[in-house]
């Protein structure tokens, strides 16, 4: 089996065979999740803590379901009611939780790099559920699985990632993963919402939606991340929709079989027209949510195997039993 990582901090650290291993395993969990009885035992006896310092609907519930379906004891830390509000530092919170012997720690944090820092302080497997503008590896992996299922392959596709690229960890992780799998990635959006140094990312950059969407196989729309903006990045939401919002006329420029994606939560009428989002012939937004649970099951399963192997080897060396 090709998957050596101890933590899942970003797609940056994953090799193409590791990505394929994870997606193939996730396929088996898609099948399990469609059954009436959805129980596996890959995480039996393990403790999973979800530690979310930022709001989340789908990612947190998806990790919770994924853990429960595989038999883990899952705890959701309610950060809003925790000592974090009393000023406890991230590291103190991590050390406190670490002392409770979790096996998997799923962390979302508003600061880029915070999850990597935390992973150095604990002795369980850490999964990054989104850190600032940095990475959101399970989102890129679930997007990859969704694309592979819809298009029948995950290479030589033209993928247009559109909108608020600068503030988006989803865009960053997708750009890295899709690049590794040899796809052509285009970034499309206003210059004010492009990250600095975008020219060095090795992808095509377009300000004009018509040019950026032309002949695309996949159109991935991003949420306008108003909470990460501290100034006037866009003229107005109305104007933004007019120029960069996905509607039927703009989608017609992509390939006739192009799929439409969005990680959610959506601002309908801002970055995407509601009728496009709901068009079951084009939109795979609900498939993304479904693939999310399967991909998280696969990620935690693989990390748990490595964790058990590591602990088993250590215990054998010490002559103790785990
Ligand atoms: C994304 C996130 O939080 O990074 N959402 C998600 O995980 N489904 C994207 C977003 O918030 O716009």
Helix content: 25-40%
Record field, number of beta strands? 9
Hetero compounds: N-carbamoyl-L-aspartate
Q: In CATH terms, what is the architecture of the largest domain?
A: 3-Layer(aba) Sandwich
Q: What is the CATH superfamily of the largest domain?
A: Aspartate/ornithine carbamoyltransferase
CATH topology of the largest domain: Rossmann fold
Sheet bearing the most strands, described?
5 strands, parallel
Reading the helices and strands in chain order gives HEHEHEHEHEHEEHEHHEHH
Percent of sequence in beta strands = 5-15%
Strand pairing plus helix content: what structural class? alpha/beta
Average residue-wise pLDDT: 94
Whole-Å distance between the termini?
23 Å
The geometry reads as globular
Question: Low-confidence spans: pLDDT under 50, at least 5 residues?
Answer: none
CATH class of the largest domain: Alpha Beta
Query: Which value, in Å, is the CA radius of gyration?
Result: 20 Å
């Amino acid at each position: 089996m090709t998957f050596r990582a101890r933590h899942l901090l970003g797609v940056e650290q994953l090799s193409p065979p590791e990505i394929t291993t994870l997606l193939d395993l996730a396929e088996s969990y898609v099948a399990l999740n469609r059954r009436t009885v959805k129980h596996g035992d890959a995480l039996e006896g393990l403790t999973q803590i979800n530690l979310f310092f930022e709001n989340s609907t789908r990612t947190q519930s998806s990790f919770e379901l994924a853990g429960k379906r595989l038999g883990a004891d899952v705890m959701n830390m309610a950060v809003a009611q925790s000592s974090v509000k009393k000023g406890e530092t991230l590291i103190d919170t991590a050390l406190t939780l670490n002392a409770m012997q979790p096996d998997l720690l799923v962390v979302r944090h508003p600061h880029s790099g915070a999850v990597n820092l935390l992973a150095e302080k604990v002795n369980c497997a850490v999964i990054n559920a989104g850190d600032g503008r940095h990475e959101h590896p399970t989102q890129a992996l679930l997007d990859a699985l969704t694309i592979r299922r819809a298009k029948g392959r995950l290479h030589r596709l033209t993928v247009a990632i559109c909108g608020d690229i600068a503030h988006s960890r989803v865009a960053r992780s997708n750009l890295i993963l899709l690049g590794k799998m040899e796809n052509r990635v285009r970034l499309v959006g206003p210059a004010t919402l492009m990250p600095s140094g975008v020219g060095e990312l090795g992808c095509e950059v377009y300000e004009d939606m018509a040019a950026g969407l032309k002949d695309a196989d996949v159109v991935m729309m991003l949420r306008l991340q108003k909470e990460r903006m501290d100034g006037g990045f866009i003229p107005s939401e109305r104007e933004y929709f007019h120029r960069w919002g996905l509607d039927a006329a703009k989608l017609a420029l992509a390939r006739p079989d192009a799929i439409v994606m969005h990680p959610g939560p959506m601002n309908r009428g801002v970055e995407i027209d509601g009728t496009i989002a709901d068009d079951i012939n084009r939109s795979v937004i609900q498939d993304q949510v479904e693939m999310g649970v399967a991909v998280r099951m696969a990620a935690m399963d693989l990390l748990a195997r490595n964790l058990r192997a590591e602990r088993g080897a250590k215990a054998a060396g010490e002559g103790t039993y785990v």
